[in-house]
């Protein structure tokens, strides 16, 4: 579905955003990522996004959540752990290819640089998301790995790489 992206607001999440964001993560994972995962991986992912301790870490400020909202509806979410590692990034499947994921990455990249003084983001990209991260300029730091049934490719991007890729895209 195409939307007016000028009306999408990316922001730090409120406590009231948590349940909806985690439901969005699960729904999107189940639709796009789960087909690539074992039953163990699916179960472990489900347990992660429903973990009450994770919510407590968010409330305490140790796990950060950002949302992309459109008319007060959460269309995308991104979480960070360890100051600059993208733990979860999901966009409602009906709104893929509207720039929501890219807007979340840009917002968080600026946030991490300003608030934490860190110019690099890391992520363990799911097989479904690898092309998305490559288009943004992330580079693989290791080949695909599997832990607890979860497949991922470790990646990173620095602000200098991000700016270079942005210039190349505009040229």
Radius of gyration: 15 Å
Taken as a percent bin, the fraction of beta residues is 25-35%
Which regions have little confidence, pLDDT < 50, spanning 5+ residues? Answer: 165-171
Structural class: alpha+beta
Main pleated-sheet profile: 8 strands, mixed
Number of strands: 8
Question: Would you spell out the secondary-structure blueprint of this structure?
Answer:
Elements: E1 8-12, H1 18-33, H2 39-49, H3 52-59, E2 64-70, E3 73-81, E4 85-91, H4 100-116, E5 120-125, H5 130-136, E6 139-140, E7 145-147, E8 150-158, H6 159-170
Parallel strand pairs: 4-5
Antiparallel strand pairs: 1-2, 2-3, 3-4, 5-8, 6-8, 7-8
Helix pairs in contact: 1-2
Concise summary:
This protein is an alpha+beta fold.
């Amino acid at each position: 579905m195409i939307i007016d992206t000028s009306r999408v607001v990316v922001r730090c999440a409120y406590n009231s955003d948590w349940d909806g964001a985690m439901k969005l993560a699960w729904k999107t994972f189940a639709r796009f990522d789960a087909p690539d995962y074992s039953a163990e991986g699916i179960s472990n992912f489900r347990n992660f996004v429903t973990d009450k301790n994770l919510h407590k870490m968010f409330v305490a400020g140790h796990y950060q959540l950002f949302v992309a909202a459109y008319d007060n509806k959460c269309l995308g979410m991104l979480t960070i752990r360890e100051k600059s590692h993208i733990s979860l990034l999901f966009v409602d499947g009906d709104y893929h290819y509207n720039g929501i994921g890219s807007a979340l990455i840009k917002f968080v990249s600026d946030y991490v640089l300003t608030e934490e003084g860190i110019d690099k983001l890391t992520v363990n990209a799911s097989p479904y998301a690898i092309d998305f991260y490559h288009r943004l300029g992330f580079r693989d730091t290791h080949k695909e790995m599997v832990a607890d049934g979860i497949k991922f490719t470790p990646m990173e991007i620095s602000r200098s790489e991000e700016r270079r890729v942005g210039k190349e895209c505009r040229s």
